[in-house]
Specification:
The protein is an alpha/beta fold. The protein has eleven helices and eleven strands. A hairpin with a 2-residue loop joins strand 10 and strand 11.
Length: about 325
């Protein structure tokens, strides 16, 4: 029997636990022995690798985060620790690896493959949705729904007190979360790293809206823009003349009950990834676009910055 392992690396997302559940089930369907690597690449080095059973994944489909933990490993960047990781896998007869993570995680496992020949398939898992080559990453829909619920709740207070709320989303240098929630929440302002802006350009229009009866504003900003949320709030108060508050959503966006979409995508990502390894595809990342699931090389995925949908950008 071939042995296969799965690990989570980098930031956790809602959808990882459903992926772990399907991994165990499908591996056994394919007569593979499934193993969990706890705490990402750190666990690979520290030999925190255990055989996975049905009882390990019972009931976890409803939970956010990842049961097997995650980590950002500096040690895995060093040759000597990757050698230890390979020895740990060899002792258990594991020759295939699924990695749930992002760009850095995939670059790490690609080096591991080139040095030691451990076959792998990467599954894009980041709420930022900033991985080139895939339109969707695991966890994105759950994060969007958390943001939607937060904005809907904040709107109640904004309208009651005639305030501006500057709501900061995650995303690093990618404005996908901010842009998508702006378009689907009816926010009045959206600022993202991909689009240049000057706040004074909004001043005349916003004052006109207030004169015509607008009582509050919702402004959604991505964490990677050139100004802080506090600076945006200060501008609203000084230039527009309306009281402003800030709400940094932060890590709340990563957690929570996985949505139906993320549970289904986890199912499909895992099934296609395992099938690819069994069919002889040794080093790839499984991606998803309008044509369905496809496989790309590490170079294709990590060699270029993700570009946002031009149609969505045109709506700003």
């Amino acid at each position: 029997m071939n042995n296969i392992a799965i690990l989570c690396s980098g930031g956790d997302v809602s959808g990882m636990n459903p992926a772990l559940k399907r991994f165990v089930e499908y591996a056994k369907e394919k007569e593979l022995e499934p193993y969990f690597v706890y705490d990402g690449y750190e666990g690979l080095i520290d030999n925190k690798i255990e055989k996975a059973t049905y009882s390990d994944v019972s009931g976890i489909i409803t939970r956010g985060g990842t049961k097997i933990g995650s980590a950002r490993s500096k040690r895995f960047m060093e040759v000597e620790y990757r050698k230890i990781a390979k020895e740990n896998l060899d002792r258990l007869g594991i020759n295939m690896l699924l990695v749930l993570g992002g760009d850095g995680s995939f670059r790490g496992v690609d080096i591991f493959y080139k040095e030691h020949g451990v076959k792998f398939c990467g599954i894009p898992s980041t709420i930022d949705n900033d991985i080139n080559g895939t339109d969707y990453c695991l966890g994105v829909d759950s994060a969007l729904n958390i943001i939607k619920t937060s904005i809907d709740a904040i709107r109640d207070t904004a309208s009651s007190f005639s305030r501006v709320f500057v709501i900061e989303t995650m995303g690093r240098d990618c404005g996908y979360l901010a842009l998508t929630t702006h378009l689907t929440s009816g926010a009045e302002l959206c600022l993202i790293p991909e689009m240049e802006y000057e706040l004074q350009e909004y001043e005349e229009e916003f004052k006109k809206q207030i004169a015509n009866g607008r009582r509050y504003f919702i402004a959604i900003v991505s964490e990677g823009i050139k100004q802080t949320s506090q600076e945006i709030a200060n501008w609203f108060e000084k230039s527009i003349g309306i009281e402003a508050r800030i709400c940094v959503l932060g890590h709340i966006q990563r957690g929570g009950n996985p949505t139906v979409k993320d549970r289904l995508m986890a199912y499909k990502f895992v099934v296609n990834a395992i099938d690819a390894l069994l069919e002889g595809r040794e080093e790839s990342v499984i991606c998803y676009d309008r044509f369905g699931f496809n496989f790309k090389s590490i170079k294709e995925v990590t060699g270029k910055k993700k570009e946002l949908d031009k149609e969505l950008l045109s709506y700003l």
